[in-house]
Amino acid sequence: MVLPLDGLPLVETSSVSRSYPEEALVLPLCKALLAFTKGDHTGCVELLGRVRHLAHQCEPGAQCDILHMTLTEAALRARKANLARALVTEHAAKKPASPLNRRLL
Prior knowledge:
This protein is an all-alpha fold. The protein has one domain. Helix 1 runs antiparallel to helix 2 and helix 2 packs antiparallel against helix 3. The longest helix is centred in the first third of the chain and has 16 residues. The termini are far apart.
């Protein structure tokens, strides 16, 4: 079965413009979300882990929050509690006023 995502071009993340990191996030984020919905939480963690550094370049907003929350939840479901704790702590340090972050800590 061919997924619609298979036709999307891959973007090399090491050469991504600092102005538009979203281009490199689209395909891995979509693949990670599909892996998550199929119950492949370890695969989701691996996919998002490869592009996590790009989320720091995004404007603060929904796309980066989705990446962070999905990676954290996938880490929990993949039984990677230490990784999930580290992700929550890191995100809370960046957004200390966030009600979600305060609840997760």
